[in-house]
Amino acid sequence: MVKEIKYNKLIRDKIPEIIEAAGKDYELHRADDAEYLQSLFAKVREELQEFEQEPSLEEMADILEVLAAIIDYFDFDRKKIREYQEKKREERGAFKKRLILDKVIE
Question: Could you tell me the residue range of the domain that residue 40 belongs to?
Answer without folding.
Answer: 33-92
